[in-house]
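This section describes the prediction task in plain terms. A model, or a person checking by hand, is given the sequence of a single protein chain and must write out its three-dimensional structure as a string of tokens. No templates, partner chains or ligands are provided. The sample shown here is typical of the held-out split.
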Amino acid sequence: MTTTPKPAHIAMFSIAAAGHVNPSIEVIRALVARGHRVSYAIPAGYADKIAETGATPVIWNSTLPTEDDPEAWGTELIDNIEPFLDDAVQALPQLAAAFTGDEPDLVLHDITAYPAIALAHRWGVPAVSLSPNLVAWTGYEEEVAEPMFAELRASERGQAYYARFRAWLDENGIDEDSDRFIGRPRRSIVLIPRALQPHADRVDEAVYTFVGACQGDRSATQGTWARPAAAAGKKLLLVSLGSTFTKQPAFYRACAEAFAELPDWHVVLQIGKFTDEAELGEIPANVEVHRWVAQLDILRQADAFITHAGAGGSQEGLATGTPMVAVPQAVDQFGNADMLAALGVARHVPMAEADAATLREAVLSLVADPEVAARAQAIRVQMATEGGTRQAVDLIEAELSASPALSGGSPIVQA
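The expected answer:
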């Protein structure tokens, strides 16, 4: 038996992107189940998904590029980071107005939700980051950030960006440097397994706690997958590049071709919404094509997974002990691919090299290697001890218990 604080009003803030919303969905659902009132600030496109958890969507208008137009993010570093500041500046008044008279007791926020941190400071309430991907370790700034941003800081556009960020922080009474404001939260619950974190032994455990995958029953929203009769007794491969970078008909054709002549394999090919199935040509009999699939349900049955190595897919592959071929498309996926390969449970295949022969050889060699299976099983077992959703909610409630305004009152008793 454990005791938790009295019910509280918790506000969660995120952007309209699957990789930032999905990792925390089960945490939000569990907070509501424990009796807390959760307001979730999110653009309208994700309102229904939030409402399904029992939380109340608080709608705001975002200027960020949408998932329907990933190319709008541009190609340069400044193109990738400037939109978040632009969005924060225009979003903050919207969000402040939405919560006026109904300020929360605790703020939870995605790593991209800059206004949430500013509002927590304004309201004088604790803020906790729910990180869907890797976090900074001791030495990160010197080893990674400073070299990465040196050229940007020296450029005219970069200097204008940092000056504007500084002015916005000053306007909101925040003394921190912008890099620390973004990258060094007061407290962070990390929604990935420790195995995916680079230099995990150098991460400050007083700030960051890894809880691993927060997975629940997704059948109501994603459905399930049943093995067709024709695939009985065959090995199963899932191919998915996630939800955003899926305009890759040549890649999907290569995956189908790779296993067309292997009758002892069955392939489930998820192509997302940007590829027309007609572009794939003739589909082999042992390949089924879908826009979306019940990914976790399939992975529980799969023998191998060709993935873009997003944080969600990577940890689902690890949680199910599935050997992976990582074909990263953007941002953190390249680092995740390298981490998976270093763990000995995956092969990193660059997109430019992902032809049928390479993909086939990578999958078959991984599945045939007993050491890969042993390592995947060991990581799966280790992840199961990290606590997942329940641990995340316990940690959030510990923050509530530490808050002077909420430490009194009658506790809720949890079994």
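For orientation: The chain is about 40% helix and 15% strand.
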